[in-house]
Design brief:
Elements (H helix, E strand, L loop, with lengths): L2 H9 L3 H8 L3 H28 L9 E3 L5 E4 L6 E2 L19 H4 L11 E3 L6 E3 L18 H4 L8 E3 L10 E3 L14 H4 L3
Keywords: Disulfide bond, Membrane, Repeat, Transmembrane, Transmembrane helix
Subcellular location: Membrane
Protein name: LDLRAD1-like C-terminal domain-containing protein
């Protein structure tokens, strides 16, 4: 049999015979394609079911807002929100003790998330973010009570605005110090004007 006669033999085959030579018909290819798509859908559903059934991981972010409206630290239970000053304070305030983990507390403040700390005017010093804008000079330079650095508003309602005598306060004193017979404001307004 020569090459010319062999070519004519192949062209003389019917369409079904050609498909049989290749191993599958168009219908067969469609069925296999549908089966593969269905298998991929089932596999994706199984993967989703397994992932969703796994125990909850530690939250990627521990950012939360406390009941006092402070930025806080979210415990593993995803319900407890601690004040920043409760993190790395040598007391386990979260159920699993994650607030005292060495990964957080070994290199303070560098290992703490930025929203838990406030860098003072002198960046070598820092305080927990819930201690800024509280009327107390926690940084020592009043930067934690400043409008420009700490975004603090004016004196809280139960404070008296003045230049304090004691460096413990910055631009206000607690009204409990008013009319106590002691000069707490440079201008003496705490003794003569404060009510």
């Amino acid at each position: 049999m020569d090459a010319a006669s062999m070519g004519s033999t192949v062209t003389m085959l019917s369409r079904d015979e050609k498909d049989a030579c290749c191993g599958c018909s168009r219908r067969c290819v469609c069925i296999i394609g549908v089966i593969l798509v269905l298998l991929m859908i089932v596999a994706a559903a199984i993967v989703c079911a397994v992932v969703l059934a796994l125990p909850a991981r530690t939250p990627e972010t521990r950012y939360c807002v406390t009941s006092d409206n402070y930025t806080g630290f979210l415990c593993d239970d995803r319900k407890t929100c601690l004040l920043p000053s409760q993190v790395c304070n040598s007391a386990s305030d979260c159920g699993n003790g994650e607030d005292e983990a060495s990964s957080l507390c070994s290199d303070l403040p560098n290992n703490l998330p930025g929203y838990l700390i406030f860098r003072c005017g002198n960046p070598q010093f820092w305080i927990y973010s819930n201690l800024k804008c509280n009327g107390i000079n926690n940084c020592g330079d009043c930067s934690d009570e400043s409008e420009s650095l700490a975004s603090c508003s004016s004196c809280p309602s139960n404070w008296w605005p003045c230049t304090p005598v004691l460096y413990q306060y910055c631009s206000c004193i607690p009204k409990s110090l008013c009319r106590n017979g002691v000069q707490d404001c440079v201008s003496w307004s705490d003794e003569y004007q404060c009510t």
